[in-house]
Design brief:
Layout: E1 3-8, E2 12-18, E3 25-32, E4 42-48, E5 50-56, H1 61-74, E6 86-91, E7 102-103, H2 106-114, H3 123-136, E8 141-146, H4 156-159, H5 165-171, H6 180-194, E9 202-208, E10 212-218, E11 221-225, H7 247-254, H8 259-268, H9 271-276, H10 282-291, H11 294-318, E12 323-327, H12 328-333, H13 335-342, H14 354-358, E13 372-375, H15 380-393
Parallel strand pairs: 1-6, 6-8, 9-12, 12-13
Antiparallel strand pairs: 1-2, 2-3, 3-4, 4-5, 7-8, 9-10, 10-11
Helix pairs in contact: 1-3, 10-11, 11-13
């Protein structure tokens, strides 16, 4: 059984044709730069053994999907499009209604449209791609795997804000959390590496990349996470601000900033880029920080401090932790940041194996460490394929 996995963003479309049993990827691709208004070309990046990158005239998600289906035939991944029988879609927001993988129906699509106000940049694109593929592959069964679903086990005392309860009852304003597909995949794989029962462990997963979040997983269930009502909450990211005093927004409005300016500021001009005034790329920030650049060091220090603060609070919330796991582009590749973070937990008896950390080994703590530190690569597409298959077998 092979499954076509679709991961659509506001300006991109990623796909993989994958075997969920073996993890074998028959082909994968990325259309990067859709819906551009600056006139620049969209990049099509395909990998089937070797990688090819080319500029294309593709401009929309519809054109990207049509090209993707042509690629599946041209590369002989399938003999006919009717061979594509199962699709798994990453859908960013499922609100409170969707806590597990769900087969997509016309009625479900109508409901997804009603809750799209919760993720206005992502859900409409997810829905558009589902509808296009229903048109192109009418016999295929399609499933939605929600980025918020894993976090639906977070208790009410944690997901509610200290706002009037009527805002939750009227608008469903609450912590939802994101990156759930990644947090679930990584935590399950961490348990497998440790050869421990997933449902007996207290795990904290740090998904660190351009977008970043941390999740406390208590006995196989999400217990708390750093992203909130939107993905802006929590850690400072590449260009997103992370958490800050909400009164600042009112202050800025009173001092001449428009709503549009503030929205752009906290989403696209803040985080590592806003603090360093250099780059949103942590690799560049890290290199300059080590070289002694004060602005880069400040950005890296702020990020590190916020990670330590959130991880520390989750250890307290769960009354302990068995493993702290790093994943994502930064989490998997930055031994420097991992060491800075983990040094703050030496009081728990956590000891870093510096050689293992430098090599990005699966376990980067010493054998006598009382808390295990780990590096586990994420694979959202494989998790989507696995959950799609599991739903088919029910």
């Amino acid at each position: 059984m092979n499954i076509l996995v679709i991961n659509a963003g506001s300006s991109s479309l990623k796909f993989q044709y994958i075997n969920p049993d073996t993890g074998e990827v028959l082909i994968k691709g990325l259309y990067d730069g859709l819906n551009r208004i600056d006139g620049k070309a969209c990049l099509r990046i395909l990998t089937q053994g070797s990688k090819t990158t080319e500029e294309t005239e593709i401009k929309t998600h519809r054109q990207a999907i049509e090209d993707m289906l042509s690629v599946l035939l041209e590369k002989k991944v399938v003999a006919n499009l009717s061979d594509v029988r199962f699709l798994g879609h990453r859908v960013v927001h499922g609100a409170e209604e969707y806590s597990k993988t769900t087969e997509i129906t016309d009625q479900m699509l109508l409901h997804l449209k009603k809750i799209s106000f919760l993720a206005p940049l992502h859900n409409p694109v997810n829905i558009e791609c589902i509808e296009i593929l229903k048109e192109k592959l009418p016999a295929a069964r399609q499933f939605a795997i929600f980025d918020t679903a894993f976090h639906q086990t977070i208790p009410e005392k944690i997901y509610l804000y200290g706002l009037p309860k009527e805002l939750y009852e009227k608008f469903k304003i609450r912590k939802y959390g994101f990156h759930g597909i990644s947090h679930k995949f990584v935590s399950k794989n961490a348990a497998e590496i440790l050869e421990r029962d997933y449902n007996d462990l207290k795990i904290i997963t740090c998904h660190l990349g351009n977008g970043q979040s941390i999740c406390a997983i208590n006995k196989g269930k999400s217990f708390d996470t750093s992203m909130g009502f939107t993905p802006v909450d929590g850690l400072p990211m590449g260009t997103r601000s992370g958490s800050f005093d909400p009164e600042i927004i009112l202050f800025l409005l009173e001092n001449g900033y428009s709503k549009e300016q503030i929205k752009k500021m906290i989403n696209k001009e803040s985080g590592l880029f806003g603090i360093s005034q250099i780059s949103s790329d942590h690799r560049q920030i890290e290199d300059l920080s080590i070289a002694g650049d004060k602005k880069a060091k400040l950005a890296n220090d702020i990020l590190t401090t916020r990670i330590v603060s959130i991880v520390g609070s989750y250890i307290a919330e769960m009354n302990g932790v068995d493993a702290i796991v790093f994943t994502g582009g930064i989490g998997e590749k930055s031994a420097y940041l991992r060491e800075l973070v983990l040094e703050s937990f030496s009081y728990l008896g956590l000891k870093i194996d510096k050689d293992a950390n430098t090599k990005h080994s699966s376990i980067i703590s010493t054998k006598d460490s009382k808390v295990i530190a780990m590096v586990v690569p994420t694979n959202e597409e494989l998790e989507i394929a696995i959950e799609t298959k599991e739903k088919l077998l029910i």
